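Following up on my earlier thread - several people asked me to post the actual chain instead of describing it. Fair enough. Here it is, all 302 residues.
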Amino acid sequence: MSIYEQRAAMPGRHAESNEASEKALVQVEYFTDPLCSWSWAFEVQWRRLRYECAGRLNWRYRMGGLIADWRSYDDPLNDIRSPSQMGPQWFQVHEMSGMPLDDHLWQIDPPTSSYPACIAVKAAERQGPIAIEEYLRRLREAVMMERRNIARRDILLTVAQETATTGLLDLNRFCADLDAFEPTDSFRQDLRDAAYYGIGRFPTLILHRYDGRGIVLVGYRPYDALRAAIEHLVPDIIQTPAMSPEELAVAYVTRWRRVVARELMEVLEYDNLDQVQAMLQSLVVSGTLLLADDTPVYMNRS
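Reply from S.P.:
Thanks for posting it. Predicted structure:
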């Protein structure tokens, strides 16, 4: 499955997505984990929601700490207690969601913990919402699609270096923050808050309206359920753009910079992934989009 990517970083567009707190109608606390396959699958719905609620939604990522270590990890719901049992679950997530997942990671280099990646995300967060958005996404791609063990410090730093090439992350500051007290302390607070709310599954969204009324959504949900929940809080908050499929595809890739075809299939409301791939390939041939080198990602040529 291919990923489309925008060649040049567009800080203005990213900033618009999560720095509109004064105008936001709904605040979201998103409890997740870089190693959570269901959260990766949920990128399809999560990105569409934010695109169609542009300027009316504000959010904050909270790291849930999926795996402290394998001695203490126990997931009775999915019957997972060891790394060897995680691969089949990833395969199931791929089959159910259509998102690209390479479960061979759990055979060749299984991560021992998700805590280092969670702390790294909190280090990126110190540079603002744009940095955390970009770094968390690249971590997800690295582990889910590229079989890279994000429990390893060298991988966390390499992903940061890749993110820094977009101009959306200061690498030197990230390296300093990674060893600072604040990101670890912030992660510990996320763990305490998750325990306080009784959150043990990811993704979990806590949606708050301006008057304090809220809804909690636990686990992977289809877009219709996500849309129904947020419109229950604020009717007509979602606005579907009136564009041709090709225009919408280009606008969506431009908005997110790196996009997989399954994500475009969702926002285009197509039923067939091959149909999406064919349209995207025509945009690549025409020079409108680029296929990322060595990675199934598409990007905007501009």
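The first helix runs from residue 11 to 18. That should answer part of your original question.
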